[in-house]
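>> received
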Amino acid sequence: MLQSLASNSCVRLIQNHKSTWYFVSLILGYLLYLIFGAVVFSSVELPYEDQLRQELRAVKKQFLLENECLSEERLERFLKKALDASNYGVSILNNASANWNWDFTSSLFFASTVLSTTGYGHTAPLSDGGKAFCIIYSVIGIPFTLLFLTAVVQRIMVFSTRRPVTYIHTRWGLSKQLVAIVHATLLGMLAVSCFFLIPAAIFSALEENWNFLESFYFCFISLSTIGLGDYVPGEAANQKFRELYKVGITVYLILGLIVMLVVLETFCELQQLKQLRKMFYLKKEKPQDRLAILEHDHLSFTTVSDNTGGKNEDKAKTFVSVPTLVSPNDDPMIQ
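>> returned
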């Protein structure tokens, strides 16, 4: 008996706090996913890092043996200076000295990566004035970019998703959910083809040191606004039409980001995903429920008041109905 009551109370507790339990499971699942990613990246990349470290030590040791007049301390200072400059996008190599990081087209590309929060990190402001302006420019520009993207995506969604789905649903009489799923799938495939596969093939042809996988990797890292910065197009030595190439990449990033947002918004409007999201949200108290509660409270208060008033009136009538004696002779008991 006690076990059945305990189990019933547990079931009732879980049912009454479904969204909370779903939210807790979501947090645990996200933490496990982070740990899973850390374990995989560590197991895959750590051997390559160790191999690269050993190769660099061997090259450094061989260089010092071949140049006995150079001390290790002087070589360390030189390498540190060169690496610090490389972190700011300035290379010491002769074949890369012709590329400027802050001409107009490169600055336009940098501004687009800042406002879209991609931030490759291969180029960064060197001066204090540039760093201060970057802060102010980002504080104003990032919300402005979000407003711009939201307005553009909302207008595109009307013509790319809502009207086609409604037209096919009303014209052919198909289920609206089925039409929405098929439309979202086709739109996603079209976006992957036009903004991942085809640009990856173009980048692999224009960039000498990139294969198709590396080019596809750059497209994904850029359009997902991750922006690791390990692959940046147009930075090769003696790049042909470098200025026009940089402008083309800037346009590609802006258009690709808009298309990705349209695709994500299209999938988010699917009824199945809406129901999935609602599982983790707190339930809002509906205005109708509040109105019903207020009406119930008002009705209860009115009933109590009416009952109290009625009782008082009855009492008053009882007291009023007692005959008033004018003289003792009027009392029938005395008579």
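>> The radius of gyration is 37 Å.
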